[in-house]
Amino acid sequence: MHGSSAKSRLAALGASFTQGNLAFHLPRCWAMLGGTTRWSDCVEALRYLMRPTQLVQGAKIEEYEQAFARTLGAKYAISFGSARVALYELLRALGIGEGADVLLSLPSHIVVANAIRYTGARPVYVDCRWEDYNIDLADAERRITPRSRVLLLQHTFGIPVDMDAALLFARRHNLLVIEDCVHALGARYDGRQAGMFGHAAIFSTEETKTISTVMGGMAVTNDPTLASRTRAFQASCSWPRRWLSAQYLMKLVVYYLLTQPHVHRFARIAHERLGRRNPLPGPTTLEERKGHRPMDYERRLSNGQAAVGLCQLSNLDQNLEHRELVANVYQAHLSGCGLRLPQAPAKAEPAFVRYPVWVEDRPKVIRALARHAVLGTWFTSVLEEAESPDVAGYEPGSCPRAEQAAQHLINLPTHSRIGARDAGMLATVLMRALSS
Ligand SMILES: Cc1ncc(COP(=O)(O)O)c(C=O)c1O
Question: In which domain, by residue range, is 55 found?
């Protein structure tokens, strides 16, 4: 979809950034937190902030769900307050609970394991492959039991799983397939959109993902029975309070402004100092980090967030094209340097939400790049953000490659605030750090 034009833009940019002359590009370097948000998204958010009666409930939700389904070529898309809740409701709609096992690969996020555990089912952790940090089916084979019911396929960083092999495996073991496309909006396998292979899929629009409604998730399926059950669960979820919906939209605007190049250098320091005292809502609660279920877990997406989601969807092609361009720049700079770069399966077309690079000395690289970019924190644990992975039943040593990945991966930003020159400069700083 976005391949050839991105490649020609990359070629046109040519050697200027491959020389990586740092001194010329520094003023733009502070703009590297940000994300996908544009000023037009902020204007939409402000419009809803000024119309409190339409902030929480309204017609935009259905419009957004329909647009999301159309984008993927899916029959049904059902929105939730986050992808973790979409997963939880899908599992329940599939009848998964006490006595069932759900296989999932690590590294992942604590909220994914929690969504499984909250249904009463047991997460069964499977190690990843070195090439793409996706599920290792040979390891999954060893973990199959008569309780195994679901194969949750995470397209890590936006790199599609080898779906031919995974679907064969699922058929052989009579497993339901849910795709975790939280990192992978726009990725394709064998020409088809990620999310269109299994019984259902989840997507996230949390602020660090490919598109942002600050928080938000979507359950997608082509199965009418599953869709109507999931829709019934959606109807039983609570609406977010008006103040929370307003805070999400305020966060979109405030973060957009604070990540402007000329203020980001100061804002970043203030942001880091604030830490957990940040008054704007964060994505993961303290209870979730401990594996506990928050009181108001089952929440819906608000109308104002859906309006922003619609805006962002309208720019999805450019967004994906840009991410592909930036990922190509990283790859062009870093391949041949002895670094381990991701290798997608043969039929996969990744849509990199971040670009993962394996480095020996992660703290050193983070220090070297800190002035220029905020490196993603996925993954610093096999279950990101868990107080400790054993809160969700992970046995240390059981997924050694995932544990290694959680010590050695950095990931480089691909979002719209990163130009090709910035990406070239980041790659150059990275290489210098590695050779010093
Ligand atoms: C792989 C993966 N799946 C699911 C989720 C949950 O997404 P959300 O924050 O929208 O609940 C995350 C969160 O980062 C994730 O990394």
Answer: 41-236
Cα four-point dihedral sign 30, 32, 34, 39 = positive
Does a structural domain hold residue 348?
no
What is the average pLDDT across 230-253? 97
Q: Decide whether any atom of ligand 1 lies within 6 Å of the 284 Cβ.
A: no
The reply to whether 196 falls in a domain is yes
Ligand 1 neighbour 411 (Cβ under 6 A): no
Centre of ligand 1 from the C-alpha of residue 20, in Å: 34
- Would the pTM of this model clear 0.90, i.e. be above it? yes
52 lies in some domain:
yes
Residue 114 Cα to ligand 1 midpoint, Å, equals 11
Residue 305, domain member (yes or no) = no
Total structural domains in the chain? Answer: 1
CA distance 144 to 103: 8
Q: What is the CATH number of the domain that holds 133?
A: 3.40.640.10
Residue nearest to atom 16 of ligand 1 (CA): 109
For ligand 1, whether the C-beta of 84 sits within 6 Å is yes
Q: Which range is least confidently modeled, 91-100, 109-118, 139-148, 418-427?
A: 418-427
